[in-house]
Amino acid sequence: MFPNTGNMGLPLALFAFGNEGLALAVVYFACTATLQFTLGISLASGSVSIRRLLRTPAIYAVVISLLILTLDLDVPRWADNSLAVLGGLTIPLMLLTLGVSLAQLHVAAIGRNASLAVVRLVGGLIVGVVVASVFDLPRVAAGVLIIQSAMPVAVFNFLFAKQYGRAHTDVAAMIVISTFLSFVTLPILVFFVLQ
Questions:
Q1: Which CA distances in Å does 39 have to 47, 58, 135?
Q2: Euclidean distance between CA atoms 154 and 1, whole angstroms
Q3: pTM reported for the whole predicted model
Q4: How many CB atoms lie within 10 A of CB 144?
Q5: DSSP secondary-structure letter at 76?
Q6: What is the pLDDT of residues 116-175, one digit of tens each?
Q7: Which of 74, 123, 161, 188 has the fewest beta carbons closer than 10 A?
């Protein structure tokens, strides 16, 4: 259910809309990552665990970022420069990680999983378009929302499914199929949002 807003969504938003698009895509990614590491883990495990949530570094990163932005705190120059360098490495590393992950996944039950992969791509597109039009978002914000919503299945879904024994081979198949389908859909998607 969770889209690949990091490995694929961030570079695509940067490509389509430049730094403004990337900034908006990072916000969407942070929201999605927070949901993945809270709701996603709870769904995969079948239970809610406060202890598990407290051991999740992504939650702390989002909270610290929100505090810095909300309180308009100045980050020391050395920290800002260090984080900028690490941030510049993030997208290439995420793309490499995606490639390695996809190379290790295997496709099973192609018919059903292909249908679910298409539901992820088309359903995400429809949700993105509807939300963008209901809230009458500006062009760049609407484009980023639609791009991020229409991404293929995220690799983290497989990791959580495997860790908690929840049909991980089916999840792997949906990731592979939706990612390969996105090679066709993404150019069309970028053309659509840039119109």
A1: 10, 13, 25
A2: 8
A3: 0.81
A4: 31
A5: P
A6: 999 999 999 999 999 999 999 999 999 999 999 999 998 888 878 888 888 888 888 898
A7: 74
